[in-house]
Fold this protein.
Amino acid sequence: MRQVLGLIKLFGFKPLLLKYKRHAKALPYVRGYCTSPILWALLQTGLLDEMADKGPTDLAEFAERHDLDLYVLESICEYLDGIRLLKRADGRYELDALGECFMQEPRGLFDLLNGYEDVLYNLLPMLRKEKAFGKDVFRRGDMIAKGSGELGQQLPFPVLHDMIRTHGYRSIMDLGCGDAEFLILLCEDDPEIRCHGFDLDPEAVTVADEEIEKVGMADRISAFVGDMFDLERAKTEWPTVEAFTAIDVFHEYLFEGTEKIAALLKAFKNTFPETHLLVAEFCRQPHEKLRKRPTAFLEHHLLHSLTNQKILSAQEWEDLFDQAGYTIAEKRIFDMVGHGYFVLR
């Protein structure tokens, strides 16, 4: 109390209270900046997964087993204990309630954000035109695939899965398959389904191959590096595919306009006239709506804008499908999360 009274005497009560309130408002932003890269590091070392699976963990033993710097590890774990993500007891660390929460659904947000680490780190040189995305600055394909797969399990995968069951498709080709989590989900549910997937990013396909091998489904699922614009290859190698799926991939090609995707959709319709196309895509949320209720789509829109990805409204997607000659057999629009699902034929 004596120290507080001394500060009040020095600054005055109101100015001192104002200083405190300003710092309190800024602290969540500073803390988020510190916390995210710490979580990225600990997720990639496997420490948080081990805590989630086995409980209290001895840091010295873990550091020795994984050849980590114990001093650095202890420093960041002590910080996470201070903000109640971890808790320390008897010299060991385990997940606190908030840490357990983060390791559930929100984990995908952190893994996906990790994929944009290079972009966030290079904002100033990008702003000064010293570097440009796609030339000097890149996304991490492995983390984009991992985070997208984790987040996809929360809504996109279940919705498309239900549509596939409803329409009875048995042979699926996924455009931009990422880590193949969606294809694994389909095959786990129905032993009659056979799936193929390709992705332009070799890192994503490497992750996919590892996941497919891990679940023992290499005889029913194949993943390879490929370009969805190479329709001749798809027509030659997989002529009996009943449905193509495209989960959040078309918007990555809209930065310079809709012409490229419009041409691709028309080509799909002409090359595979009897094959249905199932599309899950982000639907742009009006900025004023996000300002009133600032959901995670604010960060989503920011990261997509910085990496030359454009998002259309639900109506603009429908207009694009119509121009390509597709009929919408089924659609499900979830405005609250900015996502739409379409069965095109």
